[in-house]
Amino acid sequence: MVDTIFRDASPLSSQYLPTELRGREGQVKEVEELLENATVGKRANGFVYGGSGFGKSATLKDVVKRQPQHRFRIVYVNC
After folding, report:
1. CA dist., res. 65 & res. 71, Å (int)
2. Helix, strand or coil for residue 48?
3. How far is Cα 70 from Cα 39, in angstroms, rounded to an integer?
4. How far is it, in rounded angstroms, from Cα 9 to Cα 30?
5. What's the rounded Cα separation, in Å, for the pair 69 and 36?
6. Alpha helices, DSSP H only, in 1-79?
7. How confident is the model over 23-32, as pLDDT tens digits?
8. Distances from the Cα of 78 to the Cα of 26, 50, 61, angstroms
9. How many CB atoms lie within 10 A of CB 46?
10. Whole-number Cα distances in Å, 49 to 15, 56, 57
11. Model-wide pTM > 0.85
12. Is 71 strand, coil or helix?
């Protein structure tokens, strides 16, 4: 058994998605509106930016997960 200071290290994974995104309601709504425009043929481009650990990836994954009827692709650029 490996000793660790973490009770649960799963949130440290890049694949981790919290069950609830607290305080992200405004951002979630913006992304949902953008994707809705894209699904009806309107031009839709998005650019999500911010510091490390701010919840960018989690927010996008959450919104896309709730849109199973559409095939969205998230492109990550780490620079």
Report:
1. 10
2. coil
3. 8
4. 30
5. 12
6. 25-39, 56-65
7. 889 999 999 9
8. 24, 11, 16
9. 12
10. 18, 7, 10
11. no
12. coil
Mean predicted lDDT score pLDDT of the chain: 83
Exposed, middle or buried: residue 63 (CB in 10 Å: 0-12, 13-18, 19+)? buried
Side chain identity at residue 37, one-letter code:
N
Cα three-residue angle 43-48-49, rounded to 5 degrees: 150
For residue 44, give the amino acid letter. Answer: A
Q: How far apart are CA 17 and CA 15, in angstroms?
A: 7
Q: Tally the residues of the chain.
A: 79
Token pair listed for 62 = 């959450």
